[in-house]
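Journal club prep, notes for RB
We'll compare a predicted complex against what the paper describes. Inputs for the zinc ion case:
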Amino acid sequence: MIITNNPNNFKLNQKNYNKIVDSINFDSISCDSCSHHDWTFHASYSRKICFLDRKVEIIISRVICQHCGKTHAILVEGIVPFSLLSHSEIIDVLVFSDTTLIYPSHLFFLKFKYLDVDISDYHSICFLNQRSLSTIFSFST
Ligand SMILES: [Zn+2]
């Protein structure tokens, strides 16, 4: 995954996701496998994400390193890899035990999962969720 920040604090929707992806300077992002930076757009997939009490569906773009063939999905700050809940929703659920978005059993699961993590730290949450994939943070100001 390549996770980029959202410098303009856009509300998460498809239009703004595309805008953020379009603004990424891919030349500045080195492939974590081969250190080249020859990325091209490769594919896309649909993801549902809970964000500010709304469930949005975003078509996520993937890029491929032309040198070694490694692919990365492009996520925007707030989206947590392999999680339906965005970072802010995870905080709401865990801090306020807000179960409007999830089942109570899911709350129990999440409390256990994030027991040893500082849930305010977005990077830690992403690393915990990356499974076998690698994460590149590409944050600009
Ligand atoms: Zn590569």
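Talking point for the session: Residues 31, 33-34, 36, 65, 67-68, 70 surround zinc ion (CB under 6 Å).
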